[in-house]
């Protein structure tokens, strides 16, 4: 479902990503773990066809992100912590409009909205205008919008950022329940407890470099640690990289 080979992205002398290679299979929640500035968002923007890599190749469900960007966009859903919604529309209207972009029939759209209402506990959010939403309400609709067409690959970039404890719980439960053959969820976070709870395999990034990839058990075993946070710091120590964040990424265009 995901095949990345020697992927790099540079802004002048600053390397946001450096020769990253990894693979992920369907039926998984695949975690990208690392601090702010690690290169996670740069990688995900390349996968979502929002950035072109400087070098290397990325293939999403058999589609090359550089050569087939339109086809990639048809089979992915993307959520990040800062997505907005049109304030004058209700949640239901937003979901209907996005379903229309994918050519979904009216009956199919209404059935899908009902499914997402149950799975994400949307409730009254569907019939309230987005301008009146709390952060948690907005993020629920953003997620529902991203998966309205049941994408093969779902990209969640710090999707729990800013959520209250109840909305965060709903999100994590939904991510865990959404596993199925033929779907890959890419879950990017710097919160170790979230990764420990929902991710089947993980790639740990720091300063644009891939430090390790594997299951949680494999990462703990290779570092001799008992938790992902300790494993991360041990991998940074072994790499010889600084523990400071690569803040140049925040200023990259």
UniProtKB/TrEMBL annotation:
Under which name does UniProt file this protein? Answer: ATP-binding cassette domain-containing protein
- State the similarity comment: Belongs to the ABC transporter superfamily.
The UniProt entry, under Gene3D superfamilies, shows: P-loop containing nucleotide triphosphate hydrolases (3.40.50.300)
Question: PROSITE patterns in the record, alphabetically?
Answer: ABC_TRANSPORTER_2
Pfam families, A to Z: ABC_tran
The top of its lineage is:
Bacteria, Thermotogati, Deinococcota, Deinococci, Deinococcales
Annotated InterPro entries: AAA+_ATPase, ABC_transporter-like_ATP-bd, ABC_transporter_ATP-binding, P-loop_NTPase
Which molecular function GO terms apply here? ATP binding; ATP hydrolysis activity
Q: Which domain of life is it from?
A: Bacteria
Keyword field = ATP-binding, Nucleotide-binding, Transport
Protein species of origin: Deinococcus radiophilus
SUPFAM superfamilies recorded for this chain? Answer: P-loop containing nucleoside triphosphate hydrolases
């Amino acid at each position: 479902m995901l095949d990345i080979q020697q992927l790099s992205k540079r802004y002048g002398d600053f390397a946001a990503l450096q020769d990253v290679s990894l693979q992920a299979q369907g039926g998984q929640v695949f975690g990208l773990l690392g601090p702010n500035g690690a290169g996670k968002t740069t990688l995900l923007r390349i996968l979502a066809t929002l950035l072109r890599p400087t070098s290397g190749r990325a293939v999403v469900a058999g589609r090359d992100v550089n050569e087939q960007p339109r086809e990639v966009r048809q089979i992915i859903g993307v959520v990040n912590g800062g997505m907005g919604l049109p304030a004058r529309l209700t949640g239901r209207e937003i979901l209907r409009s996005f379903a229309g972009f994918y050519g979904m029939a009216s009956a199919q759209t209404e059935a899908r909205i009902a499914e997402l209402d149950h799975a994400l506990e949307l409730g009254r959010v569907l019939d309230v205008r987005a301008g009146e939403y709390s952060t948690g309400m907005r993020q629920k609709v953003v997620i529902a919008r991203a998966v309205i067409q049941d994408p093969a690959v779902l990209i969640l970039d710090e999707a729990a950022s800013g959520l209250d404890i109840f909305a965060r719980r709903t999100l994590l439960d939904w991510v865990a329940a959404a596993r199925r053959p033929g779907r890959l969820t890419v879950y990017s976070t710097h919160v170790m407890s979230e990764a420990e709870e929902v991710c089947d395999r993980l790639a740990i990034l720091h300063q644009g470099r891939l430090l390790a990839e594997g299951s949680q058990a494999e990462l703990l075993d290779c570092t001799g640690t008992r938790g992902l946070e300790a494993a991360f710091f041990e991998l940074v120590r072994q790499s010889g990289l600084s523990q400071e964040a690569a803040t140049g990424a925040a200023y990259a265009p």
